[in-house]
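Exam revision sheet. Question 4 asks you to relate a sequence to its structure. Input first:
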Amino acid sequence: MVDDARRNTFKTLLAGTAAMTSGPVLARPAADARHGGARPPAWGRGIEGQRKADRGDGTYLNPIVSGDHPDPTILKDGADYYMTFSSFFSYPGIVIWHSTDLVNWAPVGPALHKPLGTIWAVDLCKHDGRYFVYIPAAPDGNTWSIYAIWADRIEGPWSDPVDLHIAGCIDPGHVVGEDGKRYLFVNGIRRIRLSDDGLSTAGPVEPAYQPWRYPEDWVVENFAPEGPKLLRHGGWFYLVTAVGGTAGPVTGHMVIAARSKSIHGPWEHCPHNPLVRTQSADEPWWSRGHATLVEGPGGDWWMVYHAYENGYRTLGRQTLLEPIEWTADGWFRAKGGDLSKPLPKPRGGKAGPSGRALSDDFSQDRFGTQWCFHDPAPDEMGRVRRDARGLEIRGKGTSPADSAPLACIVGDRAYEAEVTIELLGEAEGGLLLFYNHKAFVGVGFTPTTIRTFEYAEEQPWMKIARAATRVRVRMTNDANVVTFRYSYDGGRTWLLHGLRMEVSGIHHNVFGGFLSLKIGIYSAGQGAIRLSDFRYRALV
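Answer key, structure tokens:
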């Protein structure tokens, strides 16, 4: 009887849905309750209206890289800066980004093409003119190890991964000691000496530092010393570490520091610990931590780290930039203050490109820089064929849960995305918001029916009979409320789907995995789908 009631309600909704033009879908509110009734902070507006940090008036507003870009590792290379992030199950992965002012960032391309399973916090460094990325991964899904890839040019080509056989370790941080030898620090906080070429170990994993402990009554996830990043400055080695757990309570994650004259210690705790920590759920950025220090173009100093955006954990951990100051006693302090407000940009930098267009006619290969398969098999790219009519993806599995959807990171609070899907053979395809195989929402189309997915499962009471092999489908995500529309005449008129979905709870604290909600497109069944004219725009 419950299913019958649902069907009747849905039929009523569908019957009352008129064909619509492609004008604005949702009216934007005059105020935003998440900011005390005031309008949201004023970011700059970039490509397709996407928010960007640079406000065009000498100030910036965090994040500097929006959307799912956690565990930032940054390299200053002359006047250029390069940064990359954890890429988890996305392949190609480890996308390198470039900047000349620390605020405007644009992707260079992916460095890792061979699947290694999930990729957590990596370290990007340069030694003797060669670039290295150290990668914690568990290709077999069991024991973690640290791998290395290298390139003579940042653009690549990058080498295949080399297993350093450092078992059970994550979060590598590379440093050259006062002895001229190379070391990796890892979670724990432990140390391993590397060979001179950086592609094998030259010693055991050994304890390096017992991190500073916060008071026991602080509300944190767990101790979890991780993310060690090292810097040599003014005769000292500085060790910057995350403790408190990377998710869980918003007040958990934090940044601490220690220093030593020798890479072998002894290390002394920074008297200003913790240097960064979310104090209250009222703040705009939650779970702040995993920091790296970097010198700006004009000689000032900065800290790059990640955090969740208040109210938008669904976007994943995003990358923030905060100024620091060196103190008279040789330590440093964070001085960004209220990160809901704009900050002066780093001195001396020259603004370059910011972000990337997400709209895609599929005429060029954007795998890695934009698109990726979620948790792909080694031969996943064999499903793909590109021609003048669009991007063809061979079907796999029976639903989004087992089809390794194509996914795209987004960084806006509200946006629209639409794409034309053509069904070839007995395939089905659809448009999703996809976290993982246990957490997604969306609509799917077969040659005879429309399927609805919510709570990571099909809602059979909403199945609609509709014979068609070509459909244009639009998804609007407005502050975590998702609306679908579809058109059978190329976007001239639209039908409103009868179910709106609220997705604010689809994030790591519920489903694990440290991921984000991405735009997803799936291809399942026998046959293939052909994608054309993907369009994206942010909603102000």
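Marking note for examiners. The longest strand covers residues 285-295.
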